Amino acid sequence: MKEIKHFINGAFVGSASGRTFEDINPANGQVIGQVHEAGRVEVDTAVKAARAALKGPWGKMSVAERAEILHRVADGITARFDEFLEAECLDTGKPKSLASHIDIPRGAANFKVFADLLKNVANEAFEMATPDGAGALNYGVRRPKGVIGVISPWNLPLLLMTWKVGPALACGNCVVVKPSEETPLTATLLGEVMQAAGVPAGVYNVVHGFGGDSAGAFLTEHPDVDAYTFTGETGTGETIMRAAAKGVRQVSLELGGKNAGIVFADCDMDKAIEGTLRSAFANCGQVCLGTERVYVERPIFDEFVARLKAGAEALVIGPPDDASSNFGPLVSLKHREKVLSYYQQALDDGATVVTGGSVPDMPAHLAGGAWVQPTIWTGLTDDSAVVTEEIFGPCCHIRPFDTEEEAIELANSLPYGLASAIWTENSSRAHRVAGQIEAGIVWVNSWFLRDLRTAFGGSKQSGIGREGGVHSLEFYTELKNICVKL
Ligand code: NDP
């Protein structure tokens, strides 16, 4: 049985209260380990350690020195690839085939990309005329924002956490991370890698626990944290924003979505099916960018539904170690309850169940896992909760449309605005439609294709701010103007 401790000021420590909670393997329902639950004491110690480290060597290091250390962090993750893979798959149940391509390599890449980026970013400079004719020179310098609270979700635990920690550290900040209570392992393991890479004590801290009235809330209420970066549900984002308002702390929020896929009759059907299968069912549908609403132009509607059904039914449901499996369980039985409540809602609202709709039969040793069938519906009205609310499960509703204008209106009809995917071989249409979709990211003939130098974030209720590339600097640094009268 593992004992999962906090990582504070360069050391693994338990909770003063002795309180722990269980970390459960969602593939079989078995307990992986006992996780220490942080109280205000541990959160406060972690914040103090981060503040002290900021004043120590980390805050004074050159960008190049920090970059070298962060490269060692990335290399350290790669060197212990199998351990990270095992930990991530134990916590999430996701297929190793998926996590070995996405979660772990991208988690490592997040340290190198931002460390390198920082080395090459220029700041602005303006010469200015003054009445005495001597002039003045303005130039910008960037300084770390300070202590950053990082609150991350369970769907891509290492990837989404390092997506924040990588740029935060590259910019010279120190962090206190609160991973989801469902997925504490990789954030903890990263503490060992940080130590081995020579990251000074206090720069990277991890406190475990729950959200409300626990570590998450204690962190967001802590007065000595300068800014918060959060990925998770829109409602939690609102709570964090309220907490951060005290003391006027900045927030970067990457929140929920109810993303639309738009499939035009002039699409390449093979590409559209392959892409929509991934966007609806990858990671058991637990991807914020995933497609839960699919709009298909009427002439190809029946063919599209039939082919997506065939694709969904060909997915191989199984545990992480099964090399043939490409479809794992949901993250927890609690989350399955939520997803199944929408499956029931779809029936109550009169949906046609094209495929799935319930829990698959699993062998006895996996029966305690959070398994659910990939599910496709048609026939719901646009106001059904199944079509308007984020389910975060392996499911989508498909609806026909007749005109481009109608498709755009449908895609934009909800308060969310995270991502969208358009499938068409007509490039004028692709640009025209992409420009009108209200979302932070629009893919044309692809999905989940990410260049880390580009802006990432949601519009409307899907988030505030952009991270990625130089956009991360806006959040993780203070841009200061120095004005010199000559
Ligand atoms: P939650 O909002 O439930 O939780 C996210 C994190 O916030 C967890 O660590 C959670 O802790 C913590 N938390 C919860 N309540 C509070 C609180 N009151 N104060 C401080 N921290 C709190 O999201 P999920 O973990 O369920 O993740 C799924 C959600 O994330 C989906 O809505 C999805 O769309 C979104 N998401 C968005 C992405 C984006 O880039 N826009 C990317 C990936 C996911 P604990 O788990 O312990 O309760």
UniProtKB/TrEMBL annotation:
Pfam families: Aldedh (PF00171). It comes from the Bacteria. One of its GO terms (molecular function) is oxidoreductase activity. PANTHER family: 2-AMINOMUCONIC SEMIALDEHYDE DEHYDROGENASE (PTHR43720:SF2). Signal peptide: none annotated. The keyword Isomerase does not apply. This is 2-hydroxymuconic semialdehyde dehydrogenase. The active site is at E254. InterPro entries: Ald_DH/histidinol_DH (IPR016161), Ald_DH_C (IPR016163), Ald_DH_CS_CYS (IPR016160), Ald_DH_CS_GLU (IPR029510), Ald_DH_N (IPR016162), Aldehyde_DH_dom (IPR015590), OHmuconic_semiald_DH (IPR017628). Gene3D superfamilies: Aldehyde Dehydrogenase, Chain A, domain 1, Aldehyde Dehydrogenase, Chain A, domain 2. CDD domains: ALDH_F8_HMSADH (cd07093). It is an enzyme of class 1 (oxidoreductase). Keywords: NAD, Oxidoreductase. Belongs to the aldehyde dehydrogenase family. The lineage of its organism: Bacteria, Pseudomonadati, Pseudomonadota, Gammaproteobacteria, Pseudomonadales. Its EC number is 1.2.1.85. Residues 13-482 form the Aldehyde dehydrogenase domain.
